[in-house]
Amino acid sequence: MPRTLRSIIINSIGLLLLSVTCHAQYRPDSLYGGRLGMDLSRIPMHFLVPERTDLELNADLQLTDKLFAVLEGGWNKTVIHNKPVFDYNSSGYFGRLGVDYNFLKPAYAHETTIVYGGIRYGMANMNYAIPQYQITDSTWGNVTGSLPQRTVTAYWIELVVGMKVEVVKNLFLGWSMRPRILLSQNLGTLVRPYIIPGYGKGVNNAVFDFNYSVSYKIPLFRAKEHPPKLKTETKTPKDKQVQVKKTAGSGS
Amino acid sequence: MGCKQIIFLFLILSTLASCENYTSCSGTVGTSMGISFNQIIDSTESDTIPRSLTVTGIGRTGSFYARDSGLQTIRLPLSQIADTTAFYIQPDTTAQGDTVNILYRRNLHFVSSGCGFATYFNIDTIKYTRHSIDSIAIPVKTITTTDAKNVKIYYNK
What we know:
The complex is a heterodimer of chains A (252) and B (157). Helices cover 16% and strands 52% of the residues of chain A. Chain A is of the alpha+beta class. In chain A, strands 1-2-3-4-5-6-7-10 form an eight-stranded antiparallel barrel. A two-stranded antiparallel ribbon of chain A has the order 8-9. The longest helix of chain A is centred in the first third of the chain and has 19 residues, at 3-21. Chain B has 157 residues and is mainly beta. Chain B has one helix at 3-18, and strands spanning 33-41, 44-47, 53-57, 63-68, 73-76, 84-90, 98-112, 116-128, 133-137, 142-143, 151-155. In chain B, 10% of the residues lie in helices and 48% in strands. Chain B has a six-stranded antiparallel sheet with strand order 4-3-6-7-8-10, with no helix packed on it. In chain B, strands 1, 2, 5, 9 and 11 form a five-stranded mixed sheet that branches. Chain B contains one helix and eleven strands, in the order αβββββββββββ. Chains A and B meet through α1, α2, β5, β6 and β10 of A and α1, β7 and β8 of B.
């Protein structure tokens, strides 16, 4: 599928999701705090792409009404068996550090829904090896070989756009779209790691990913509430006249 | 999580997963050396077509071309398990053939998990007899999966 078409489909579905999750409730009595969560999209991903096993956890801490510090981390294992052509295995860990900025103007002090944009700096450390490969050549003879295990560290930067909605008290569902740009270029002269944990396809210098996470907010402290100032009603001359008449009537 | 959201989630993942097939090969792994036949007449280069071309691989039974006519360019596979491959090329049944020995370096090139690896070659030099051949040029030294004309064989007039 062409990359552009794929991007359009993903973005369209993302917008649909936005409209669905917007129906979630607001909880004005919530407390500020940190959220611990997990990327749910990695669970069915394993069943759709059995070669990949991923785990991704995330945590954020609300710094201000608008700003969140974010830490994400996880693990990936990739095993590709395509005998006799190519066997590959890799495993490694990753971490991402960044901030999210809430674009949604809060209607009140404790509004919990956020529509955010953010940035991450990611790092992964992994091992990968090609236990066996074969190039079939019926003319001069097949080539067989293997490549020993290598350890590499990859760095990337990613942008994040998404939203989080509190569906029940302190429990959030959220999705995010994430374009990533690989900063490390010297990952391997012959074979680059096929899947970089936390990044995606290592053979591509830019990738796009989609996360769907569930997170639980651990209330740490209550936010200061700034109740809106009440407007004092000014009485019109007509009201005053009615009041005078009523007072006069009551006296007779 | 609502039912609709679960459906949307799987739709997204299916879309992403459909692009991730690790075992099917949609690339090209076959590499071969392109050879064109030429002549130089009065300092002017021109194409030539051997009347009855026979090409065999030295150390291999059978032939790549057997008395074929009408070919100005041919493609020959180089050995991926040695750094040299020799061919016997006879342009005509009445002409004496030549032995052409290609010396090269091999480079393993990763295509994809589905296709595996391909061997790319970098031609260092070509040694040849001069029974019918006048000279050989190597305009494109690197042999990849493209259809480049790597070698030009110039025949005597």
